[in-house]
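User: I'm preparing a small set of examples for a lab meeting where we compare how different chains pack in three dimensions. I only have the primary sequence for this one, and I'd like the structure in token form so I can line it up with the others. Please keep the answer compact; I'll paste it straight into my notes.
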Amino acid sequence: MSYRIEDYPALFQLQQEKALTLRQAPLRYRKKNLKRLLSWIYDHREDIAAAVRQDLGKPAVEADLSEVQPVTGEIKHTLANLHRWARPQKVAPTLLMVGTSARVYYEPKGVCLIIAPWNFPFNLTVAPLVSALAAGNTTILKPSERSPHTSALIEKMVGELFEPAEVAVVQGAVPETQALLDLPFDHIFFTGSPQVGKIVMAAAARHLSSVTLELGGKSPAIVDETAHIKDAAKKLTWGKFLNCGQTCIAPDYVLVHASKAQELQQALQQQVKEYYNTGEGIERSASYARIIDAKHLARLQEMLADALQGGAEVALGGQVIEDDKFLAPTVLTGVKPDAQVLEEEIFGPLLPIVPYTDLDEAIGIINSKPKPLALYIFTRSKQNTRQILRQTSSGSVAINDNVLQYSHLNLPFGGINNSGLGKAHGHHGFLAFTNEKAVLKQRIG
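Assistant: Understood. Below is the structure token output for the 445-residue chain.
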């Protein structure tokens, strides 16, 4: 079902009315919805892969790994734990409260809005929906207009599984999103850039709606003098060039100890060749995705040109095929600190390598930028690890790996300040869509 902007208030009111009845529904009703969603995804894995390939050129194996499995894993984890998460929790009395009893009740927030991005268009739309359903909310989904095939499939899925009063999909671009943000949602879950995140937060402030903002930024990787270079290169190649670099927690730039810089550069060249080179060029590889559209390809080409004009060198890659929206995995060296690739979030397959001579220098570079969504440390030194953890701030950290922390459903996922607000995944996602209501009972007399 398609909705015009003038339909939004009526749809919102419909969901408000449904939310009042949903809050009284037993937990088994939420579980039933989650099981139906899980079954639909399993039955349509090939359709999901096909839609994502049309939108992003994403290989089938990568689509299953990054779009389907995170969502099915989220659903199964939620089904296994929801009875415990939703149960009222008794809390011990403090000295002044002796004689009272107290519990925390977990109630749905009400009507929720999920605004999703294009880079993982199925995963990052449906995974937050899992948390919203688990918490007992009604939800309006706004998938990205930049990934139209996946957005259409999500609309089809929701239409087959839910009444509009419970879950609805609104398609469109900026005007439609702005019209949605005029409504007094009880919670807004947004995934996207910090710039748009500020707009969402300002709109939410008009109604004092709570928000979860999953944003981005420049997530650094540190490769110190003790690191296993081949292992680091293998993991960085996978983490950086997955989805053609269009991943919010991809390593944005690498700070490498000067004594290991040349070795890392050579190891990255070898790993890219092993991952993607068919012998006929990376553009023919069945394992490499594409840039989402011509606009973003042009932005990345401008970044690359800016770096080269400043004296940077291409150690690997650099090839562009505009008609195919292809940009090869690219490693840059000799990049000046004020180059665009070191000042702005890249969100593409450009990887600047920045040598450092002292760990304090590397930490200083990280702390000179807004707090990142993720930080990666490749090291065999416990002392270096402790120093970096103590002296930097980020949404998450992975040691001797990258991106993998996203898949740990018992860890909170989210940023800090410029890279995000609030947490998602598992129990943390359930809490994001839940009001923790304090209830105290006093004796009579």
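A couple of notes for your slides: Residues 220-407 form a domain with the Aldehyde Dehydrogenase; Chain A, domain 2 fold (CATH 3.40.309.10). The radius of gyration is 23 Å.

User: Perfect, thanks.
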